[in-house]
Write a structure and sequence with these properties.
By secondary structure, the chain is mostly beta strands. It has a domain of 139 residues: Beta Barrel (AOC barrel-like). Helix content is 2%, strand content 43%. The protein is built from one helix and twelve strands, in the order ββββββββββββα. About 28% of the residues have low confidence.
């Protein structure tokens, strides 16, 4: 599943595929499968202090694996609203991301910073996924999935974080296990992660046909 988030919200999109090692063939994963889940998100602000998140492999298993991706585009650093989340194809509004990020270290030699990120992805009545780990503004990193609720209850795994435009756009790939198949409306072919993509106007406006029911706002 892929997601895209945009300021002051997050756009999220989803895609079910085999794991990177198994190719890109579309599949349906069983319960207790391992899920790659991607997202681009504006999780941080540029302030060098405790920050409000703006959003938006494993052990060997013989089971099918699934991919879930998200894109996030962040709000300005003085905006306290959470980021909106859309499906990875940018056609549907599905929720928000929210949390905190703490600046740990400035890396002048890499022209970037290291943060500790703690935040959650909220998908309305479907539930939420919480993550924690390093966010580096100069290279890809992995966050640990710390738990979930609703259809994500019992989830574990990790999230690959790819920065597109600091601090406004990030792309995540979630590798999840311990949950059942995801709802079809959360799934789709994610757009190519690049700084210029935007959610569909209907998704931005959260029209009924372009949003999940009772999405978190």
């Amino acid at each position: 599943m892929a997601c895209f988030t945009s300021s002051p919200g997050t756009n999220c999109s989803a895609k079910v595929t085999n794991s990177p090692a198994e190719g890109s063939k579309s599949i349906v994963a069983p319960t207790k499968s391992v899920l790659p889940f991607k997202l681009a998100t504006p999780s941080l602000t540029e302030n060098s202090r405790l920050l409000l998140s703006k959003t938006s492999s494993f052990n060997s298993f013989s089971v099918t694996k699934r991919s879930f991706s998200c894109r996030n585009q962040g709000a300005s650093s003085d905006d306290t609203r959470p980021s909106k989340v859309y499906t990875g194809d940018l056609k549907k509004r599905i929720g928000i991301t929210a949390g905190i990020c703490v600046l740990i270290q400035n890396k002048p030699e890499k022209n970037g910073d290291r943060y500790e990120a703690i935040y959650s992805f909220y998908f309305g009545e479907y539930g939420q996924i919480s993550v924690q780990g390093p966010y580096l503004t100069y290279e890809d990193t992995y966050l640990t999935v710390t738990g979930g609720s609703g259809i994500f209850e019992g989830v574990s795994g990790q999230v690959k974080l790819q920065q597109l435009v600091f601090p406004f756009k990030l792309f995540y790939t979630f590798y999840l296990k311990g949950i059942k198949d995801l709802p079809e409306e959360l799934l789709g072919d994610p757009v190519d992660p690049n700084p210029s993509v935007e959610p569909h106007p209907d998704a931005k406006a959260a029209h009924p046909h372009a949003a999940i029911a009772n999405f978190t706002d």
